[in-house]
Amino acid sequence: MIPLRSTERIHSKTIVTGVFIALNVLVFFFQVSLNRAGLTLFVETFGVIPDAISGRLYTLLTSMFLHGGWMHLIGNMLFLWVFGRNVEDLIGSARYAGFYVLCGLAAAVLQVIISPYSRVPTIGASGAIAGVMGAYLIKFPRARIVTLVPIFVFITTMEIPAALMLLWWFAIQFASGLGSLATTNYTGGGVAWFAHVGGFVAGMLLIRLFPARRPKWRAWYESD
To answer: Helix, strand or coil for residue 122?
Structure first.
């Protein structure tokens, strides 16, 4: 299932979501401009390496703007566009920026805790975006998502309840994360499942600290 758009209306410009997408795309274009050795050095410098996190705490932030390939980037940016704009519209751009970063940090920290001896760089915006998705679940539980769905050899669009889609997505991440605990290879690649789980849960919890901003149309008669 590929989400295309939310049925929830947006009432203001969602500048920060666009800025985050632009930053991720620009960094990725820089990555693909590097040769193999340069790319390896870049990822090892700015990605989170749990086994070497001491003295490299800055990578908890920088890692969320790197991606491992075109599909990794496109998938992440699509999910950010679909779910991020409503959350930004709800809480305001400045607070949304802080919320996004906090979710990304929480995701990276959990991945480090789960795999403290891993020497594989963890990169990607998935943890921060998972936090946005967790916030969306809490704030827009009755929304519907227009989704691209393959049915045998055909592809069609359907409106799927956001709660169903997001909970199903989380269940897959959690189950996959549990399955990954059985592996002991700290040098091979893979998916940082617990970064997704940590980001999602962080988003569900942290969004309660970011109340919805007051609707502009009510401001003319409120005196406080």
So the answer is: strand
